[in-house]
């Protein structure tokens, strides 16, 4: 009896083991199939992504086509680690555009990038350079499309010794326009934008000397290391607020500092950084101006031709008005962020100075 019971139990155990073995082998085979199916599916998705190219147009860019953008003969007018800026002639629409190529390795994640592009493409203001279109290529290349402004950038305008750069009316017009553009970025949008890279070379001028702020929101499209490189370049050029260490900490006050440096450029014709200062001069323009005040060197505070052209144009400006403008610029460049004016305060003061 006991022997029969043992045989029965043994048979049951053998049966269970056989069943478990069959189940295990089936699952193993199915898992392997699913694994290879997943790899194949992923490869197909990646292949599809590589083959996809897209052109998104915004207000003012409805005439853009992929062929026109890609076949446009271009001239390099600016280079940085994160990309290259081209002046390009679009033959289909017979227009000149600015094309900004962003290196794929420098940009943020695709989902975040597309979201920011849609937001930036919706921003319109008379003193901001609009985004007309965005091209995404088969190798993840990204191209931003902007209008072209024939007078070039403000840095060139000041450095070229153009007599118009010393006309008081032009100086005020440019100063007011930049402040209006910044104020819109800071307070006129549902999601405020800090420029983070405001420089005179990032202000474009039309034939009537109306300024257009460019490059706003660029750091939002870049990954953290590339955005930090943008900040370091701004520091090297003399526009970075002293308290700003990381791009993510940029604020209205740090934009105000950069704006103040531009006002000093307009007023004096000097560059933000003096590469070869004498023992009596300072490396940075705001520091140079502070020392000029302490040394009672009033002639160093503004370009002498401002008063000269003012009398010729009949647009009389007094030395008192010029010094008020200087004081506003220095307030923007205050070492203490809390003491820097907002762009609304700047605009009110410029209105007082201009009347």
Topology at a glance:
Layout: H1 2-51, E1 54-57, H2 66-70, E2 74-80, E3 83-90, E4 95-102, H3 110-121, E5 133-136, E6 142-147, H4 154-159, H5 168-187, E7 203-205, E8 211-213, H6 224-236, H7 252-268, H8 285-294, H9 305-313, H10 319-332, H11 343-354
Helix pairs in contact: 5-7, 5-11, 7-10, 10-11
GO molecular function, one term: ATP binding
Organism: Momordica charantia (Bitter gourd)
Keywords: Membrane, Transmembrane, Transmembrane helix
Task: Walk me through what this model shows.
It is a single chain. By secondary structure, the chain is of the alpha+beta class. The chain folds into 2 domains: 54-147, Phosphorylase Kinase, domain 1 (2-Layer Sandwich); 152-354, Transferase(Phosphotransferase) domain 1 (Transferase(Phosphotransferase), domain 1, Orthogonal Bundle). Helix content is 47%, strand content 12%. The strands form 2 sheets. The chain has a 6-stranded antiparallel β-sheet. The chain is globular and about 65 Å long. Mean pLDDT is 85; it is low at 4-9 and 28-50.
